[in-house]
Structure formats: structure tokens, C-alpha cells
Amino acid sequence: MIATSAAGPALRVVVVNGSPNRPSKTMGLVDVILATLAEMMPIQTSRIDVYELGPEFTGVVEREQVSPGVEAALKLAENADLLIAAIPVFRGSYPGMFKHFFDLVDQYALAGRLVLLAATGGGEHHALVLEHALRPLFGFFQALTVPVAVFAAAADFDGTILLNPRVHGRIQMALTDVADLLRTRAPATAAH
């Protein structure tokens, strides 16, 4: 499923949600990230829920086999100004459907694109997924992962509402990095 909202000329932010749960702590974390980013700059947001893409997604092995809806989701992710990769930790890594989505992304489509890494897990030890699984995945694509990644543990939430001020501070740090990276890239983009 793809959900979109917009408000004028804005940064195109695409969330790839790897959580199978509705609602989820992962999307609770992403909601805070998006709200904080919207306070900093105009954004247009889209969300791809990989677990809702259906059998035309789960049953394919090659990009050429995907349905038009799945192709649209892949293109949306490939053309984001900022991609937010959001996962719950599952057995020490990202969920299989999340990885399957990126198995279908063109190898060079994310080269140089900004990617913010976000994850939720049962405890602080799950935060390692950011550096040991997610960052290498996007390194393969030659994406520019934001230096500060965001992790929230189950204890940081009341249901799906993020409460921990430390995590809110980390989100602010990560998005300051996003804003700085966008500013340094703007002159190069304007020259094209």
C-alpha cells in the first residue's frame, strides 16, 4: 500500500515501512520523525507498507515480473529526495519482506540518495541492526546514509506513542544532519 500527503513544493520523503503490524511502534517512531521534519521544512510524504503490497509482490523474483502497482512503489522509493528505511528488528536483522522490496530496487537507483535509518526493537541491544544490517544494505546501493540513525526500544513507547525525550533528541540530531546535507547538495543540484 502507498499513502501520500503533500503541501506545495517540498522535499519528497518516502518511508519504506518494514513492519507487519498495524498500528506499530515502528510507524509511531516514523510519525515523530515526519512531524519533526515538517517543522523544519516543507515536505511531501509517501509511505510504502511492504507487507501490504500483496501476492504480486511476494510471489515475484525479478523486477520484470512485478505488477504496475508494485512498480509504482519501487519507482517512488527510487526517486525520493529522502528515503526513510523503517523496520522493527526481527531475529537480529530486518524483516524478510523489507529485504525483498530492496531486492527488486534497481542497483544504481539509490546512488547518492539520502537515506535515514530508523528501527525499533525489544531492547537497546537491538540498536546494532542499524550499523550491522541496514547501513551495509544501503552501502551496497551507494546511497548516502545519514550519519545519525534512530532507534527506539519497546520501553520508549506507551503503545505506539514515543515518549522518551532521548529518542526525540536523537531524531532532532538526525534531521539536523539531513538539513545540513541538503544544504551542501543544493548548489550541485542547482548546477544541473
From TrEMBL:
- Signal peptide location: none
| SUPFAM superfamilies noted in UniProt | Flavoproteins (SSF52218)
What would be an example GO MF term here? oxidoreductase activity
Spell out the Pfam families in the cross-references: FMN_red (PF03358)
Q: Which UniProt keywords apply?
A: Flavoprotein, FMN, Oxidoreductase
Query: So which domain of life are we looking at?
Result: Bacteria
**Which stretches make up the NADPH-dependent FMN reductase-like domain?**
12-155
Q: Report the PANTHER family cross-referenced here.
A: FMN REDUCTASE (NADPH)
Name of the protein in its database record:
FMN reductase
